[in-house]
Amino acid sequence: MARKNFVSQLRERNEEAVAHWVAVYQKKIFRLAYAFCGDREEALDIVQETFMRAYEKMGYLKEETNIEHWLYQIARHLCIDRYRRQKSQKRGAGINHYPDALTLIKQEWPMEKNSELRQLIGEAMEQLSPRQKLVFILKQINELKFDEIAQVLGIAPGTVKSLHFKALRHLRHHLQPLLGGEK
Amino acid sequence: MKGCGFTRKNLGAFLTDELTPEERNKVISHLKQCSSCQQELTVYQQLLQAVDDFAAGLRREEDFIDWELLVQKVRHQVRNRQFQRERKPRSKPFFQQSGWRSWLSRPLWAGLSVGVIIGALAMLLILKGWLPRISQEEVFSFSPQMLDQVEQHLAREEVRDYLDKSQLLLLEFLQLPSDQAQRFWQEKMTAEEIQELLLKKKYLNSQLADFRLARVKALCDQIEFLIYELLKVSEGLPSEEIIKLQRFIQEKQLLLKINIIRKELDESEV
Lengths: 183, 270
Known about the structure:
The structure holds two protein chains of two kinds. Chain A has two domains: 1-95, Rna Polymerase Sigma Factor, Chain: A, CATH 1.10.1740.10; 97-183, Winged helix-like DNA-binding domain superfamily/Winged helix DNA-binding domain (Arc Repressor Mutant, subunit A), CATH 1.10.10. In chain A, helix 3 (40-56) packs across helix 4 and helix 8 crosses helix 9 (157-174). By secondary structure, chain A is mainly α. Chain A is built from ten helices and no strands. Chain A is 75% helix and 0% strand. Chain B has 14 helices and no strands. The radius of gyration of chain B is 56 Å and the shape is elongated. At the A-B interface, helix 2, helix 3, helix 5, helix 6 and helix 9 of A face helix 2, helix 4 and helix 5 of B.
């Protein structure tokens, strides 16, 4: 009943409900955007834009809509848009991603094997296809289940499982020298 | 080893707890027997541990962000959009808007209406006859002088052609002995050559009269007369008469005259 009220308040664009809605979901959207694009400011822009777009379409919100998934859907479109734009702008240029996050890690933890791994993960993730990257982030960072990811991306759960495995295999291949084991 | 493919393909799902109980049992029983897959599992565990650390690093970033400010920013933008939405009335179709100013504010409608007005005015002026109409005859008309010149040029060409052919014919006749002349003209009479020459002369008569080419006309008349006389040769003229005709051509210096006239025609002095 409370959820129903919340959705109808959102549909009426109640200011308090909108503020609560932003406060609840902003970090989750930020995690997805930040892991995807690797730039804090850009990720914050994506968060704002996601909420503004969602606000525009709020009138069409249905009672049964999963608000979190709906926001992820908007955010992933924005992430892929930016990815394409960046790809065309900075093709061939080596971009240093995750600078803020890496600085933070370096400050708080001493450099060891795992820390080096973390640094390389950011670089290795850049090599993934947008779909593999989205699946991997939604699974490992946003902690969604395969079924939920399938709903967000509008694909079959089997495809999600396959994309997740491919992403893992790619990262493993990229980080082979550090991880060891068979090729 | 049997089952390695299935196990390795599902290691990610196994480590993230996404397998069904049956799949999970299958993977576990394989891992117990296969050291290679166990080693692979360790590698993936390490990798996922590193990914978790990476995620933790990103979450720590969140502590450096003023989330309240972000909420306020979004609220502010939301208010702005709401305000704009309330302020900006839904645009009505142009015909429902009042006043001519609203019309002119739309460049497309303004342009269209101006075009229609100008078109209507132009049609009115043309229909009323206030604007001169350009008739097709005038567009393609030529001055009479120009037509005269064209006809004169054509006549000259025709005369030149007539003279060339006549000259050839007369030359041939002059070079023949009188006894062979009869047979020559009998052959020629049936040929199209002479018929064509006579027809051409008929056409030239009117042309030469019109353009006052008196000297040319006199010469052409003489030639025509000669051709008719020569035709008689074929009907059995005595050889004395033939010699007389040949002498007539020489006395009148017809061939020379033809040359002079042709030269004059070439120089357009006639």
